[in-house]
Structure to design on (226 residues):
């Protein structure tokens, strides 16, 4: 019996056409990165058949890999041109880290869970993506030693916009993150732009993310939970 291997490249093309371009993802650099990075390598084996569906999927440490559309939407909102230093809060599976490696000069990625950081680093090494550093630590406070950043992206919902992240933006820098609405379960994606001493905020729509745990986020769950 012939063992027919899935055509992942074709699945990526279908994802790009139906999930991204059809929903107004127009940044050619983002589309090229999504085309180049094999998302199926970043999900657990049992979820590989669903890797190119437009849905979040579970990964280790009770975290998730975001749906392709929201990843592309956030990357497009950062308007990267290739020479930037980027801070990623929440390495997770490493999928977005890989995309950022294609889109920026250097990526500093922070991850709270060592098991996720190690797994992501191994896949990125396999793909030959070396213009990055993955650090295990509290992403909610950023990484001031490598600041300022031209762009910051946060892959978990915060109770408010963390002041340290805004401080670590370069002049002209962009920060995008989900923020919980006060006294509500609703979350909104906010883009922050730093222009000199001015800081501007833009609501880019409703989203759903796991909580940002840390000093500037939510308290950690009880012992025994992620």
């Amino acid at each position: 019996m012939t063992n027919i291997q899935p055509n992942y490249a074709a699945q990526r093309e279908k994802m790009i056409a139906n999930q991204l371009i059809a929903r107004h993802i127009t940044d050619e650099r983002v589309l090229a990165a999504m085309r180049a990075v094999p998302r199926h390598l970043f999900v657990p084996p049992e979820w590989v058949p669903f890797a190119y569906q437009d849905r979040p999927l579970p990964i280790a440490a009770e975290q998730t890999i975001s749906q392709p559309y929201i990843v592309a939407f956030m990357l497009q909102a950062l308007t990267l041109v290739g020479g930037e230093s980027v801070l990623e809060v929440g390495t997770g599976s490493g999928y977005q880290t890989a995309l950022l490696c294609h889109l920026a000069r250097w990526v500093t990625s922070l991850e709270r869970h060592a098991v996720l950081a190690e797994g992501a680093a191994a896949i990125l090494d396999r793909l030959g993506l070396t213009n990055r550093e993955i650090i295990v630590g509290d992403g909610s406070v950023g990484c001031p030693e490598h600041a300022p950043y031209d762009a910051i992206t946060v892959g978990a919902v915060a109770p408010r916009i963390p002041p340290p992240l805004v401080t670590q933006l370069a002049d002209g820098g962009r920060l995008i993150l989900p923020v919980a609405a006060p006294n509500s379960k609703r979350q909104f994606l906010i883009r922050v732009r730093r222009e000199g001493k001015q800081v501007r905020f833009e609501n880019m729509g409703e989203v759903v993310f796991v909580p940002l745990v840390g000093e500037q986020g939510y308290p950690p769950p009880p012992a025994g939970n992620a």
